[in-house]
Design goal:
With 188 residues, the protein is an alpha+beta fold. It is built from 3 helices and 7 strands, in the order E-E-E-E-H-E-E-E-H-H. The chain has helices spanning 80-87, 124-127, 129-180; strands spanning 7-15, 21-30, 50-55, 60-62, 92-97, 103-110, 116-123. Strand 6 (103-110) and strand 7 (116-123) form a beta hairpin. It starts with 6 loop residues before the first strand and ends in an 8-residue tail after the last helix.
Length: 188
């Protein structure tokens, strides 16, 4: 390690034909540079979703917030409960809260080559924004339909009952004519 730089050291022995180590290739990756994940570091979900990498021990290896790199997910802290589940072996999607208190959708996938876990966080408000806007439009349409259904139903029922209303009127007229002794009018 170089002082104050978070790094991952990589070593690979080079052996001769007899199996003896002749050389050791060494290198390091500076975790403070955004090149650890390559193009994946640029992936965004919505406006503020992101990818991050954490070790099975709970140490953040890569994160969009530099201050989180090399920090440990602390027990009980918001956003770290989901990370603790992932480091314990959880793989899949769950809902949770980010360290800044934003509700979000988390997805975790263990990496086979290392003892790291790739995680992603997508803010819930962004993830469900389109569904919520569709829901608002649907509720508005349902309310408008409900308000229009009463008057429309009333008009349809009145039209359907119009012949009965006419018949009822004629029956009242016929009854009035017989009660007064006047001859009933012939139907027209």
């Amino acid at each position: 390690r170089l002082p104050r730089l978070g790094q991952v050291a990589i070593r690979a022995p080079v052996k001769d034909r007899g199996g003896q180590v002749r050389y050791v290739n060494m290198g390091s990756i500076n975790l403070k540079e955004r090149s650890l994940l390559g193009e994946l570091a640029q992936v965004r979900f919505g406006n503020s979703g992101y990818l991050f990498v954490v070790t099975r021990d709970g140490v953040v290896v890569d994160h969009p917030l530099d201050e989180r790199i090399l920090s440990r997910a602390s027990a009980g802290a918001p956003g770290d409960l989901e990370i603790e589940r992932a480091t314990a072996g959880f793989e899949g999607v769950t809902e949770g809260t980010s360290p800044d208190g934003t509700p979000g959708l988390y997805a975790f996938q263990p990496l086979r080559q290392t003892s790291w876990v790739l995680g992603s966080m997508y803010p819930r408000s962004e993830a469900f924004a389109r569904i919520e806007s569709i829901e608002h439009v649907a509720w508005g349409g349902a309310l408008a339909l409900a308000l229009a259904a009463g008057p429309i139903a009333s008009v349809v029922v009145r039209r359907q009952l119009a012949p009965l209303t006419v018949l009822h009127g004629r029956m009242l007229d016929a009854r009035t004519d017989t009660a007064t002794g006047e001859p009933a009018m012939a139907p027209s």
